[in-house]
Design a protein that fits this description.
The protein is mainly α. The chain has one domain. The protein is 89% helix and 0% strand.
Length: 112
C-alpha cells in the first residue's frame, strides 16, 4: 500500500475538524460532535480505500519497469564499489611509496 496510516489520520482529522467547525455554527455541540465523528470515519475509510486502489494501479502500471530500476541500481552500486576499490588500492600504493621513502631515509642516516 502506498503511504502510511498517518495519511488516513491527517485526512480524517482535517475533514472532521472542518465539519465540526462548520456544523457548530448551526447545530448543538452533541450534534456537531456526532457529525464530525461520522465524517472522520468516512474520510478515514475513503483515504484507506484510495491508498489501496492507488497501490494496486501503481503496481500494475510499473511492474515491468521495476526490473530496469533494479538493474540501474545494481550498476550504480557496482560502479561505487569499483570506485571504492580503486581508491583503496591508490591509498595502499601511496602507503607503500611512503614506507619506501622512509626506509631509504633511515638507511641513509645509518650509512652516514
Amino acid at each position: 500500500m502506498i503511504g502510511t496510516i498517518l495519511w488516513n489520520l491527517l485526512f480524517a482529522v482535517f475533514g472532521g475538524s472542518v465539519t465540526f467547525i462548520l456544523s457548530l455554527t448551526a447545530n448543538s455541540l452533541p450534534t456537531s460532535v456526532y457529525r464530525a465523528a461520522t465524517v472522520f470515519a468516512i474520510f478515514y475509510l475513503s483515504m484507506f480505500l484510495f491508498r489501496a486502489i492507488f497501490a494496486y494501479v501503481a503496481q500494475a502500471t510499473y511492474s515491468g519497469e521495476t526490473s530496469d530500476v533494479v538493474a540501474r541500481s545494481d550498476f550504480y552500486n557496482a560502479s561505487l564499489q569499483s570506485q571504492e576499490e580503486r581508491e583503496k588500492e591508490e591509498e595502499e600504493e601511496t602507503a607503500r611509496q611512503t614506507s619506501q621513502v622512509i626506509r631509504d631515509l633511515l638507511q641513509e642516516e645509518e650509512h652516514q
